[in-house]
Design brief:
Helix content is 30%, strand content 13%. By secondary structure, the protein is of the alpha+beta class.
Amino acid sequence: MYGIGGERELGERELGEADLGWLPGYEGSGPGRVGNGAAHQLQLDVYGEVTEALHLAHTAGLARNDYATGLQLKLIEYLERHWPEPDEGTCEVRGPRRHFVYSKVMSWVAVDRTIRLAESGEADGPLGRWRDLRDEIHRDVCEKGYDPERNTFTQSYGSKELDAALLLIPQVGFGVTSHMSESRTDGPGLSASGGRRPGRHRPRKAPGRGRRDGRLAVVGIRTPPPPRGDHREVLSLGAGTRTP
C-alpha cells in the first residue's frame, strides 16, 4: 500500500480540533484521521483472493508465467506458517485480532488452488503436505467457526455474530459435512428494511468500534435474458452473491 505521493509509511493519526475541527467525518462519525492503519494489519483472506484470481485467470485461458507461479508458491509458503494466527479480517477491524472464519476459508482456498496447480503439472511442491494442510484448515473451520445450534457459520471463532462474506463458502467450493446446511449462512443475517428494500445488518456493535454501525444494502442487478426468455435476478450482498 502506497500514498498518492509514493509514500511507503502510512502511519495513522487522529486529527484534533486544532488540526481539522471543521471536518467532522461522514454523518459525524469522527474522529477524523489521516494515514491508513490498515497498512500495518494482517489480513489473511487476501492470500486466498490473490491465489483464486490467478486460478480463475488460468482456467479462463490466460497463459501462466513463471512469475505468477512463483508468486503463488511464495504465498503458500507464508500461509503454511501464519494461517493459524488471528488477524484483522477483511473488514480491517480496529479492535483485537480474532480468528475470522472468512480469513480461514480463504486460506483454505489458497492451499486448494495451489494443490490444483501442482496436480496439473505446472508447479512442483509437497503435495502430500499441502493436502494435509488443506484438511487441517477445513477441520479447524468446521470445528471452531460453526454454530451447530443455529446451523450457521459465524463471523469468528467463538462469536455469535454473522458475516455476509461467508455467503462465498459454497462459491469457493469449501465443502461442508453432512450435518451442516450451507443455505443457513445467509438466513439469520438477512433482514428487510421497511418491507421494501432488503438489506443485511452489520453486527450490533462492529468489532473495534464503540458505536452501532450502519447497514449493507442489497443491490439488485438484472442480467440479460437467456434465449428461452426467462429472467434471473442476481443479488449482490456485501462480498457474496447468490442467484435465486
